[in-house]
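Sequence and fold
=================
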Amino acid sequence: MHDKPGFVFVHGAWHNGACWDKVIGLLEADGFPCAAIDLPGAGANAAVPAALQARDMAALATEPSPNAGVGQEERTNAVIACVEEVAERSNGKVVLVGHSMGGVTISPVAEAIPDKLEAVVFLTAFMLPPGMPAIAMIQDPAMADAVVPSLFVADPQVVGALRIDTLSEDPDYRARLREAFYADLDEETLLKAVAQLHSDEPAQVAVNPSTVTPQRFGSVPRHYVRCHQDCAITPAGQEKMIGLTDAALGGETSVHELHASHSPFYSQPEELAAILQKIAVA
C-alpha cells in the first residue's frame, strides 16, 4: 500500500491521455501513482472519417462520424475502472483531474464512486450543475467569445460529432486552432500537440444533462483551476460554472489560478503539478 493518493487524468475533447505526460512525470517523481487513459472514442480509440484523409471537405461536412455511437456511460465506466486500479496502487484514494470536456466525465465518476476520491479537479473544464448539458454552457452568453465553435467543419446533428479539421493547412484555420487551445505554446510544441488531436469528438457527451447530486458528488472536495488566457472555455464561462455549481450543490469550490491558455499541461506543467500536489496533500 502506498502512503500517498494517486492521480487519474481525463483529457478533453479531441485530445488523448498523452497530453498529461509532462505533468505525470513530475508527480510520479514525487511519489504519486498516476494514470491517464484515452477515453472511448478518443485518441487510440478514435476512428477517422474517410473524408478527412481524402481531404474532401464537402464529404467531411456530411459523412457520419465513426465515433458517433460512443456515449457518456461508456466513458464513465472506463474512468471508474482506471480510478479503482490506481486506488490499489496508492493509499486507496485518488485525485481525479479533468480538462475541458473531460469535466463532463469526471462529474459522473465522482457521483458514482465518491468514496474513492480524495478530490476532484476541474482544469478549465465543464463543471456543470445538476440538469445542465455541456451544450447549454457552450451556447451561454458567457462563452460568446470562445473560438472553438469556429473550428467546426460539420453540423454535429448531421454527423454525430463535434468535428474539427486536424489536418488543415489553411493558415487562418490553424491560427484559430492555436488561439483556441495553444496560444502560449512555442512552434515546436504546438506542432507536436496538434499531431496528437483526433477530429471527431462524440456529440452525445455534449447533450447529456449533468446528474450530480449534493449527497454524492457534493461530498467530494472540488477544485477548479482557472486559466485566465483561455479562448476555448472563456474566463467568464469558467466563473459562471463555478457560481452555478456552488449555488446548486452548496459548499464552495476551491479556486486556483493560472495565467495560461487552454492547455497548461503543455505550457506550464510545473505550475500545474505544484497546484495538484498541494491539493493531494491538503
Notes: The domain at 6-281 is CATH 3.40.50.1820 (Rossmann fold).
